[in-house]
Amino acid sequence: MKKQLLLYLVCSSLSGSVIAQSSWTPASMIAYKRVSSPFVSPDGKLVAYVVATARMDAENSDFLSQIYVASSDGKTNHQYTFGDKSCTDPQFSPDGQFMAFTSGRGKDKDAKKQLYVMRLTGGEAEPVTVAKNNITTYAWSPDSKRIAYIVTDARSTQDEKDRKEKKDWDVVDQFQNAHLYALTLTKNAKGDYPVKQLTKGAFHLSGLDWSPNSKTIVFSQQNTPSVNDWVSSKIATVSADSGAVQSLALDKGAASQPIYSHDGRFIAYVADVGQNSWMYKKNICLIPAGGGPVKRLASTPDEQPILTGWSPDDKAVVVSEALHTASAMYSLPADGSALKKLTPLTQGIYASPHLNNRGDVALLYQTTDMPVDVYIASLSNMTARKLTNIHADYMAGKKVAKTDVLTWKSKDGKYDIDGLLTYPANYQAGKKYPLILNVHGGPAGVFAQTYTGASSPYPIQAFAQEGYFVLRPNPRGSSGYGTEFRKANYRDWGNNDYEDLMVGVDKTIQMGLAHPDSLVETGWSYGGYMTSTIITKTNRFKAVMAGAPVTNLMSFNGTADIADFLPSYFGGEFWDDPKVYADHSPMFAIKNAKTPTLIIHGQSDDRVPPEQGYQLHRALQRLGVKTKMITYPRQPHGFVEPKFIQDVGERVLDWFDSNLNRHTETAHQTASVLSEGKR
């Protein structure tokens, strides 16, 4: 027993940890709670939000969500929903008497998400819909008498019959659209809540908002629910009584996220101003509620604004977006004059803001060393007050390894590149450590100052616990730095963006932090593309993990669900310019690869189909390069089951440790210490 205890103490010490910190592992980090959907009440006195907890037992591997409500004075905070079915998307009624939410609480294991309504003064939640498919989006009417919601069309009777008879083939690119319904919250003679379908036809709905007089609904529509069809997105209105639809004449380009002004005169929306590019350049525009000339408001720094709402006096529109490795909220004057930054802090992430008519703002805030919690502020004073302490138990006894923002000049001298560098736990100055280079997806993703102790296929604090530096750069092509920077990898994937990454690695070596002979790398999606590219360009990394990697641009464009994506980045189809596709495909240079490569893919990934990973794996096998590929059932592009998320983190750590011979080194050091103990 003493020998086992001594071995445990030694292993804890060698991993760069004290015993109190030993819980930073992929397994323990799954306990991190996911917080979402803050919603402030009309009077500003309450904030509802959702907490999701990993459920991992013999029959379950999912995240169970429940709704909580905190008072804005910080005095109360209670769980409002319970049970073994998730409850999501809480919304207070405008009159402040009710709260609605969605849940699949039916007896059937696969029960569809329905709308529930409960009184804030107490009582059971009542189901108010019987939709045949999941309700995806909903909104209360301002008079609190109706709820508009969007639901996917049900299959036809013949289709259901065919499926029961095992004639369940699927026609590629044949979609079920979603349409708009209005529910009246006064029961009819049969005891039912009357429902009216407001839209139908060959188009698909997403966002919606009610006019202030509760008579009209504005919505966003596109040709199909395909993610590739976002460029067809337009805005229209529909009468909540007659169902008469009116399309609004807009500028050329996609339009989405419509929101009425408080006086009902204008509709604000997000427009891509005719670019129709996956590199995005978006503005906030205003259009008269009945149609007319469009006014474009001031551009935001990153030109990718997310619309939050209107100021109480309708003189400005409020938006949020990424700002380098942080985020910010802005006020855009309706007269088109210069924007004003609202959020005072220059670090951390403001997320999911909800704005009521009084100007109260409920939001989530986090930093690299502080977990996400619910906050409240007002447009007149955006110094947010913390309302929750959701992760107190999770954080007990843990020390968070620090994260710094590094900046370096690109090799060609054109850009300053940022990167987040997380230090090993119990870092000792002057000592060199192994480095994990972690590349984000997108390519227009961004590594932001989110909490590094959150559960993820990349468990950053677990990496730090095991004695790694983790460098997460934002090379050219990333969001958060403006449109020019986001477009800087046009027809140049895997070249200058690759150099941006390598200069960052070199910087950590020059700083005396990273050991040049102990480098490993990983990335997911476009990060997986960069992983596949890196092993064809350099042998400096001792091991890599490619998650859902794009490896062959030609076959990717023929199998992914975003057929317009690569032509947007490369200026044409591969049959018109095969050379540029080949020159930027790792598979066409794979004979140069020698690095041990772990490949991870979800079997239900439509964004980057598993064939991309198989191409890489088979080629490396044939070349005699050490490789292993694991696929996970049911998983889309981003993994959703906690058992698999944990497994990925553990596999990545084990792959890196074994290829750096860290297991062997630790074992030898342990044996030496034990021998000294015997003497």
From TrEMBL:
Superkingdom of the source species: Bacteria
Keyword presence, Magnesium: no
Matches recorded under Pfam families: PD40, Peptidase_S9
Keyword Transferase in annotation: no
Signal peptide: 1-20
Domain Peptidase S9 prolyl oligopeptidase catalytic: 460-661
Alphabetic keyword roster: Hydrolase, Protease, Serine protease, Signal
Protein name: Prolyl oligopeptidase family serine peptidase
Species whose genome carries this gene: Spirosoma flavum
